[in-house]
């Protein structure tokens, strides 16, 4: 009788949830189609100071270990010379230095300084954009925003070919962390492979003024280190990027059964210049983006306003988060699946944010200028008076909180990875609903790179987001599934981690994955012999060092469990082998252990 009552209660909850999700999605759709309401409260500045010190936050409000990053002070230079002077002064005082942008959307603690340190922010070093129309290049100050760069280039009748999908980044930040779009054509989808030259401010001896500016291009052996520098070689001051003549894009999303997409991704990437795939494993659906370059005189004035990067009413963001927390607390897998089904159906209805006429989606293909199609992030922008809406993950309104795992596979290993994930999915498909609530598995393509910390062969990039609890020790529904997928990627198939994303475990042993890692370290010793731009945090990531394991460290990916205490035994979460990848060690719910 009790079981029948519980089943009836759960069925009633699922029915109410369907209505609730439908109402939320309707509100989001209405809100997104009203132009005067699409502005957002801008993200909080990443650096805040009191009378004695400063703290650095990332764009999500929470670092991987939930510990703040403190520094002695921050400066806001407006010219390259002011950056040089700041580095020189820090060198004289034997201070450590870290450079940050106005955005700070890096998830690992690469930008975190040691406490006796100086932060150099490029937030106000953001005005210089020099276009060489004849040479098809643009030279920009490192603090210039990606959107600011793209708009200037498009005004000149030119286009930047590669860009990350999220535009809330600075040029210096996206270069230093290896940001990517998607393409196996031309120079490829990684932005650093479109860099022509880069200028760095590095420490110098007293006779050189304690700091100097060096300019590097393909003729200089240090160039391949500087293209993906992780902020540890010096402060990037200027970047020159290759351009193309202006063009438009034509995009159509094609929904397919996921039965054979692991056999079809190569053909898709070769056929369509900017192709990608979104895989919703719980829905057995793979969405192919047929995305091609078309002439500038093609009909169409569409835009890509990706739904995940649109402004959301603060009430909606907090309500979605509260709903997910309630489902987690109730261990309501069916509720998560209801939510996932609603989200996927809604995204299909609105073409995931593509708009034919800058207002709504009316049908495929959506054709628009490259600068309006290659990246998005409308939640970033606001008039001074707007305080009602934010980016969905804004911590000030208790919005979404999630992990983001991004793995870069050699193309030859990607099929086997997908087959393993399908085996894990097929054991219990509903366990994968949690990732489909966000954006499923986003699959992109990048070419082999000469950057020392870039990809050494044509590669496939896989991103997936999943729920993160408000408190570090709180278990998450099906967390063992995502830990196993994570370990299948990084340990079984040796995927490389995206430098600006991921939990700490993704970086374990990372130096062995890059054939030119030692060349990068040699370049660092040459440019920064005193390790002025290093910190304990960045060293932990770059060298993939395993910190001392402590109780609960595996619950948030700070370690891989080897004992039950690394999970949360008091809540029934013990260290267990993987279900498909037996070498994996994951924190799995084992209720009998609590009895």
TrEMBL record:
GO terms for molecular function: D-arabinono-1,4-lactone oxidase activity; FAD binding; L-gulonolactone oxidase activity. Its EC number is 1.1.3.8. Residues 1-40 form the signal peptide. It catalyses: L-gulono-1,4-lactone + O2 = L-ascorbate + H2O2 + H(+). One of its GO terms (biological process) is L-ascorbic acid biosynthetic process. The keyword Disulfide bond does not apply. Residues 67-246 form the FAD-binding PCMH-type domain. It comes from the Eukaryota. InterPro entries: ALO_C, FAD-bd_PCMH, FAD-bd_PCMH-like_sf, FAD-bd_PCMH_sub2, FAD-linked_Oxidoreductases_BP, GULLO2-like_C, GULO_Plant, Oxid_FAD_bind_N. Pathway: Cofactor biosynthesis; L-ascorbate biosynthesis. Transmembrane segments: none annotated. It is an enzyme of class 1 (oxidoreductase). One of its GO terms (cellular component) is membrane. This is L-gulonolactone oxidase.
